[in-house]
Input
Amino acid sequence: MSANRALRLLVLLLPLAAGTARGEALVLSWSSSVYQDAQEVPLAAPEGVACTASSFAVADTGKQRILLFAMKPGGVAAQTGEVKLSQVPVPVRLQADSKGNLLALDGKSHKIVRINPAGAFAGFVDLKGGPAAPAVVAFKLDAGDGLYALDAASGKLLVADAAGAVSRQVELPKGPLFTDLTVVGGTVFAVDGVGATVWSVEREGKAFAQVGASLKDRMSFPAYITSFQGKLLLVDQNGMGIVTLGLDGSYLGRQLALGWNDGFVYYPSQLCFNEGGDAFLADRGNNRVQLFTTK
Amino acid sequence: MNARIALIFTALALAAGPARAADAKKLKLKPGAEGKVCLDCHGSQFDDILKKAFVHTPVKSRDCTGCHNPHASDHGKLLSAEPSQACLACHDVVPAKARSTHKVVAEKGCVGCHDPHASAFKKNLLKGGNDLCAGCHKPIAEQAQKAKFKHKPIEQGGCVACHDPHGSAKAPSLLKSDVPELCVACHKTDKPIFAKQHQGYPVAKARCTSCHDPHGSGKRGMLYENVHPPVAKAMCSQCHEAPTSAQPLRTRQAGVALCRGCHAQKLNEFGEKARTHRPLLDGAACLSCHGPHASKEKGLLKGDMIQVCGSCHADTIRRQAISPTKHAPVKDGQCTACHDPHSAAAPINLKNPDVVESCGQCHDWLKHSSHPMGEKLKDPRNKNLHIQCLSCHRAHGTEFKKLMPFPSTSELCTKCHEQFRR
Output
């Protein structure tokens, strides 16, 4: 083989090898599914899921409740509780804070509700110092329980402390329809469902800037964004899949597909990862939550 | 104006002349071979053509090589260049940086509207006046013709009074200039009658077409057919500050609060359901989808539902566009046949969460002569689902026939009936 030919082959194979390596880092392998509670009552259109190393919570939206589960090595141990609160009739998004509380976004009132570790209502998160009548459509917590919320009414990102005191407001760009956000090292990434674009603003930044180009040719309608192992993961709700991006917006791959069997998705919603690398996906259209490993 | 057009045509002809002469020179043609020789064979074919009222200049001057290569060509009909490119050599009519271009120019080229040899109509058009435009734009042409209150420029100058049929560098919709500049060229905004008709509000710089239909209307003042009651009653100050105030066009309240004044009951009903459509939550609220003054569409929608809903749900509209099987409500832009655009109890704002019942409104046969369906029939693929229409179809279409999510019936059926899989 001539030196030139060998070089050409190497140039061709290097990107393929790199692609495999990137893919291996975040391949979701189905491990189990949660279809029902301990009383064998089936889940109905679950839209939210929050997870820690030892537990996870499911917003069983269609049944107007939140189910709590314990994890054991290798899978789900048991259901540990059910939360049904009049303050959260339509739970759509969940987040677990560092103190064992659960924060739930109500899809009807568009308010965030705090639920204590005992499963009792612990008050609304009153976004003090923010816009007068916010309509929160998405929120996330950072490692220090700092709260980041997308307020559709004012068209702003609201950054608040754990108590809900708003310390920063950043205008969302006009035009995109922001469906969700995530926080990586203080930088907030927000996703535009209509244009399939990702935008970011740094910790002290004053304005969002688009990260990379539109991914409309690779995604239909990203409705959720989270991060894991330094990558962004977008739930393509209408396209039935999960898209992985680098923090620079570079496209790294797509996985999962439309289907009804385990391992397939139908209008997926919230996705979360725990420290152990387990992924939990609220598979709304399939009335279940699916668990995946990432190893 | 006419003198200017004549000057342009003269300049174009002069510019084109040397090019054609150069072609003849390049082909080393004998005198007369530019065209007269062609008629030795094509004469009978051209007998009628040459009798027509408007003959294309090169045809008239027997210069066939102006457009055709007499020996061979890579293009149809021995044209010397791509059809439209051949025309553009003389007719530089499409703006280089167009804000809007005519679909027919892009898709069919010049021959979509012009006969390259001769025609009974001016500018070698295939039909005369507005009839040509009406061939594609039938609804607008009919509206303009039947309207009780007609727009004079259409009657007097036709479509080209406001539109440039080749493309516009200045405005969308092929308009010769943007609104309101185009409108105020005729409608003098400094006249007292203009102020009186607009209740004293300074609308000279407003977008006229947000209330008025330039193609004529059944409503006085050529307002669109669906008029917001305060506008119809000339009660602008019900929503806007007084015309004499410092900011007369400012609304009395911002966003949904203003609409709530009259539509409180409706808005409360929307809020009672579990899922509110996202645009209602945004700052623009009602105005995300509805116009505040007048509209061609029912419910004062800003456009038809394919336009309005498609402005966010473009992926869904696209799915239907590429689907070999069309689903009538989606194709016809009747999104609200299945979805509630304001709020609903079910996900994706379905009006009726019972899919079989919802589809059965149109496909009533499916309830008695179809694959077994219903709540008692579990989906073998997923114990939390029962068999219903969406177990096998996707309502907005797929790249496959019959709205199926898989390429073939066997692939679809064996997802459940695994024993038949080969």
Observations:
- Chain A touches chain B through 38 residues (CB under 8 Å).
- The domain at 131-255 of chain A is CATH 2.120.10.30 (Neuraminidase).
